[in-house]
Structure formats: structure tokens, C-alpha cells
């Protein structure tokens, strides 16, 4: 019965005309011949060319395909060192030195697809299936709030039971929860809910917009058509490459202008996937004038019952992973970059210093695993394995030691700094100034409401250093009203007010 229902439902999901309208002469924007040609043409780039490309990134311009291909072809360790250093400079210019924290909340592992790398796929009989009720979602939200989180990403398998109506109800359930902070007792709630879910038609995307989501995230997994076909069976919804490729085009048309792209690294050649993400960015810029809000570059990790996830010929080494992160940073300078707990702490630490802007912490990816901690060790209730299960407080302490300030800022989309507005501000390095102010305000809340003593010891001097920097920057001297508002909001937070931003 369940099977038949799922089948009927699945037949109505893909709306062909919502793909065709974006094609150019009937073709999608991933021109593989062109990608291979550019990767080949740009072998042995000379150091002057690389230097010019780095300067272009530093002027916060999206790179052209030949430029990214040249970076991907660098062989000299000295030049790679220069690339790594420039990646961090670009990040600091656009986003200052803050790291934004979030937590993922896995709502359901029912799925009609059969992606070869994922523990949630329908054919995986070992997976214990569960969909959270709205009350359970609220309970999970309370646990995450108790850690100090303010931003969540909800994750769903693709299934009739977790359709757009369920997602919208889940988003509203999350926003409805309030919890007192453990130290100060100040009431807190989640301020931004993002979504990672399957592609949808525009009418459904509009439901998510109405529910108040922040970013909508869909990873293409692999941009290589043949590999895509191999790992996503043709008789499944996910088997339609172009339905997925244009998921974010539809989202922007539906009014969701913070969209996030990604590739699952390890399915195909990593250089090709980096080019694919650049082509995706360029097509969004061409059709809408805005690029992706964030880039994700998960590396495949072992998943329950998936041989491919544990042993792929395209597994990306740690060394290549650092290179791809740096090249993405330089290729799309305005995008946020997300490094997740799939990676081990050591790798996260390294790539944060290559220009990542966001990370998750205290991550539990089992369904219901925040409130039901004991399920977490069981791979058969999860999608894949994680490399960094550390608590938020530990990770904040670590990034503080590296000199980065932790941020829970959600001001951008609440102040209308999304889509074209934020892209303009990012490329003129203005948004980073707001990031800096809002990072200080939200870190102040965290230190007062949640931080351990050890984290406060690192955090208090860091916050004072940031404030001194803000006070001495010409940008703020020329905007005295902004500085004044920041000072007064900071004092108000100290005296007990919450959720103030600029
Ligand atoms: N079902 C939705 C979809 O496929 O778009 C939701 C996303 S899925 C739960 C989230 C992402 O996890 C996928 O897009 C994929 O990139 C990633 N993922 C799947 N299997 C993985 C694995 N074995 N290791 C690391 N990431 C994985
Ligand atoms: Fe389902 Fe997404 Fe996993 Fe594919 S990656 S099996 S669509 S949950």
C-alpha cells in the first residue's frame, strides 16, 4: 500500500516545463567538453598568470572558467602556499574573521531514492526509518537551543511523508520553541531555519518561503552526467539530472534568493566538480544577477550498507581537499563556504584557515538524536558517519584560539540583506563590516548565556580586541550613527536585552 502511494505521489513531482525554461538551446549549462578542454588547455600555468588571477579574486570578482582551471593546474608547492594565503585574505576582506555556527536537524530518513552513497536510500533495509512528529521536532530544537545555537538547517529524505507541507510545518515548529539559557536564564529561540531538501516545483518552494526559511540548499552531488546516472538510478526522482540542476533557479524564481549549491566530493574527479560549481555559479549570475549564498563541498564518508561510500576510486585526499577548498574560495569570492562535521577536527581546523565562513558543531545526524543521545552511535539510523562530534563550546574555544570570532548572526535576511542586495554589499566588502558588528553582538550573548569558563577566558579578550578594531576602523568613523548604534546595542545586551542586530 505504502509503495503504491509513494509511486503515485512521485509521478507528480517533476514538472518538465520548470526545467525547460532555463535550458539554452535545449542544453543545460554543464558543457563537459568545454570543462575538459579548459582543464587541459591550462596545464602548467605560469606564475605571472596565477598572480593576476589571485589579484582578481582579491578584487572580489567571480573567476572565469579558464582562471579557475589554471588554479586547479598549479603544481608548485610554493604557489599553492600563495593560493592558500590569498584564500584567507579574500575571506577576511568579504566576511572579516568570523565563523558562523549552525546545527543540522535531521527530520526524516524516509526516502524514495536510491543514491548509491547514502544510508537513507530506499533499498537499504538496514536503515531504521523514522519521521519526527512536530512535538519531537520541538524537543530536538530545545536540545540544540540549550547548547547555544541560533541557526538550524533542517534535513529531509525525499518522500511523500516529508513533503513541502511537512517541511513548512517543521519550520514553524522550530521557530515556536523558546528555551531559557543555562547561565543567564534569558529566553532564546532559533532565529534562522535553513533547509536541505530535494528539488521541488515552484508552488512548493513558495510554501517554504512563506514558512520563513533562510537558505535553500540542494547539492548536485556530481556535475558529471554519466557518473550522475551511475549513482542515481533512472527510475527514481533523483535520477533526473536536470530537475536537480535547476532546483535553485526555480527557488530564486519562487522568491527564495539565498540559495546554496554543493557537490559530494568523491563521486568523480574533484577538479571537474570544482569547475561544475563555478559553471553553476556563473549560470545563476547570468540568469538572475546573483550567485549562490553558500558553497558546500562535503567529502563522501562511509554510510550504512554503501560499498561506494567507503571505497570510491575518486576519493579525495586531505591534500587535494585543501586545494579544492582554496580554489573554490578564490573562484566565488562572495559566497559563504561551509565545512561540516563530516570532516575530522584536524581537517576542519586547516580549512577554516583557507576561507571557510560557516561550520556546524554539537552535530547529531541520527533522526531524533539530539534528545535521544543513545541512538547516535548506531550507523543504521544515520545517513553517513561524522568526523567531528565535538560540542559547540569546544569548537568555539578552538576557533577562538585561532583568532576567529564565533558568530550566530542572522541579521542579513532579517534586515532584507539577501539576494542582489547582499551580493552587492559582499562584492564591495561592506557586508563584512556588518558581519563583524553582528558577530560581536551574538558572541557577547553566547559568552554571557552559554560559555564554559575556559571558553570565556579565550572569548572575552577576543571580543575586546574586536571592539578596539571596530572603534579604530575608518569605515565606522565615517559612519558614526552605525558605530553609535553598535555601542548602544552592546551595552543593552550586557544589561540583559537579547536579539539585537544591525
Ligand atoms: N534528500 C535530500 C537530497 O538528496 O537532496 C536531502 C539531502 S541529503 C539527506 C544531504 C546531503 O548529504 C546530500 O545532498 C549529499 O550530498 C550528502 N550525503 C549523502 N550521502 C553522504 C555520504 N555518504 N557522505 C557524506 N555526505 C553524504
Ligand atoms: Fe535520499 Fe537524499 Fe539520501 Fe539520496 S541523498 S538517498 S535523496 S536522502
Percentage of residues in DSSP E strands: 5-15%
Number of strands: 11
What Rg, in angstroms, do the CA atoms define? 22 Å
Query: What percent of residues adopt helix (DSSP H or I)?
Result: 40-55%
Distinct compounds present: S-adenosylmethionine, iron/sulfur cluster
Main β-sheet, spatial strand arrangement: 1-2-5-6-7-8-9-10
State the CATH architecture of the largest domain. Alpha-Beta Barrel
Query: Mean of residue pLDDT?
Result: 94
The CA-CA distance between the termini, in Å, is 53 Å
- Overall tally of structural domains: 2
Report what the structure shows.
This protein has 502 residues and is an alpha/beta fold. The chain has 2 domains: 2-24 and 90-425, Aldolase class I (TIM Barrel, Alpha-Beta Barrel), CATH 3.20.20.70; 426-494. It contains 23 helices and 11 strands. It has helices spanning 2-11, 17-20, 32-41, 47-58, 65-72, 77-95, 134-147, 164-176, 202-211, 225-231, 241-245, 247-253, 270-288, 307-310, 318-331, 345-352, 392-401, 411-414, 419-427, 431-449, 453-472, 474-477, 480-494; strands at residues 98-108, 151-156, 179-180, 187-188, 192-196, 213-217, 259-262, 294-296, 336-339, 358-360, 405-407. The longest helix has 20 residues, at 453-472. It is globular. Mean pLDDT is 94; it is low at 1-5. S-adenosylmethionine is lined by residues 117-118, 120, 155-158, 196-198, 218-219, 221, 264, 298, 300-301, 303, 309, 342, 383-384.
Amino acid at each position: 500500500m505504502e509503495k503504491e502511494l509513494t509511486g503515485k505521489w512521485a509521478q507528480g513531482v517533476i514538472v518538465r516545463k520548470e526545467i525547460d525554461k532555463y535550458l539554452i538551446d535545449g542544453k543545460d549549462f554543464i558543457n563537459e567538453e568545454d570543462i575538459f578542454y579548459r582543464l587541459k588547455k591550462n596545464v602548467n600555468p605560469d606564475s605571472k598568470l596565477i598572480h593576476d588571477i589571485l589579484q582578481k579574486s582579491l578584487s572580489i570578482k567571480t573567476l572565469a572558467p579558464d582562471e579557475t582551471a589554471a588554479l586547479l593546474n598549479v603544481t608548485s608547492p610554493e604557489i599553492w602556499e600563495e593560493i592558500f594565503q590569498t584564500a584567507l585574505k579574500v575571506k577576511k576582506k568579504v566576511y572579516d574573521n568570523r565563523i558562523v555556527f549552525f546545527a543540522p536537524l535531521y527530520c526524516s530518513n524516509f526516502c524514495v531514492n536510491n543514491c548509491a552513497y547514502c544510508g537513507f536510500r530506499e533499498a537499504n533495509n538496514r536503515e531504521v526509518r523514522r519521521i519526527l512528529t512536530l512535538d519531537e521536532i520541538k524537543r530536538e530544537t530545545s536540545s540544540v537551543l540549550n547548547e547555544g545555537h541560533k541557526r538550524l538547517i533542517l534535513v529531509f529524505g525525499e518522500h511523500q511523508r516529508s513533503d513541502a507541507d511537512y517541511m513548512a510545518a517543521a519550520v514553524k515548529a522550530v521557530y515556536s520553541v523558546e528555551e531559557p539559557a543555562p547561565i543567564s536564564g534569558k529566553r532564546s529561540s532559533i532565529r534562522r531555519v535553513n533547509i536541505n531538501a530535494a528539488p521541488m516545483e515552484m508552488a512548493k518552494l513558495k510554501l517554504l518561503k512563506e514558512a520563513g526559511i533562510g537558505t535553500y540548499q540542494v547539492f548536485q552531488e556530481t556535475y558529471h552526467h554519466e557518473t550522475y546516472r551511475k549513482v542515481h538510478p533512472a527510475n527514481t526522482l533523483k535520477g533526473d539530472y536536470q530537475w536537480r540542476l535547476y532546483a535553485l533557479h526555480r527557488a530564486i524564481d519562487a522568491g527564495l534568493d539565498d540559495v546554496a549549491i554543493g557537490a559530494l566530493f568523491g563521486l568523480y574527479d574533484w577538479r571537474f566538480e570544482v569547475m561544475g560549481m563555478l559553471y553553476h555559479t556563473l549560470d545563476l549570475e547570468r540568469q538572475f544577477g546573483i550567485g549562490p549564498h553558500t558553497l558546500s563541498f562535503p567529502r563522501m564518508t562511509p554510510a550504512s550498507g554503501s560499498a561506494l561510500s567507503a571505497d570510491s576510486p575518486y576519493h579525495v585526499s586531505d591534500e587535494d581537499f585543501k586545494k579544492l577548498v582554496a580554489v573554490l574560495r578564490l573562484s566565488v569570492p562572495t559566497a559563504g563556504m561551509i565545512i561540516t562535521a563530516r570532516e575530522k577536527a584536524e581537517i576542519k581546523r586547516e580549512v577554516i584557515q583557507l576561507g571557510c565562513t560557516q561550520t556546524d558543531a554539537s552535530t547529531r545526524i541520527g533522526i531524533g538524536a539530539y534528545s535521544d543521545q543513545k541512538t547516535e552511535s548506531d550507523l543504521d539510523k544515520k545517513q553517513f558517519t561524522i568526523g567531528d562530534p565535538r560540542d559547540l563550546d569546544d569548537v568555539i574555544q578552538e576557533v577562538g584560539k585561532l583568532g576567529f570570532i564565533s558568530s550566530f548572526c542572522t541579521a542579513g535576511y532579517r534586515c532584507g540583506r539577501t539576494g542582489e542586495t547582499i551580493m552587492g554589499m559582499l562584492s564591495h566588502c561592506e557586508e563584512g563590516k556588518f558581519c563583524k558588528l553582528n558577530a560581536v553582538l551574538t558572541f557577547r550573548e553566547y559568552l554571557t548565556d552559554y560559555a564554559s569558563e575556559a571558553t570565556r577566558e579565550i572569548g572575552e579578550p577576543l571580543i575586546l580586541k574586536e571592539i578596539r578594531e571596530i572603534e579604530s576602523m575608518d569605515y565606522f568613523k565615517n559612519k558614526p550613527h552605525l558605530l553609535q548604534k553598535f555601542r548602544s546595542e552592546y551595552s543593552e545586551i550586557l544589561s540583559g536585552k537579547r536579539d539585537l542586530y544591525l
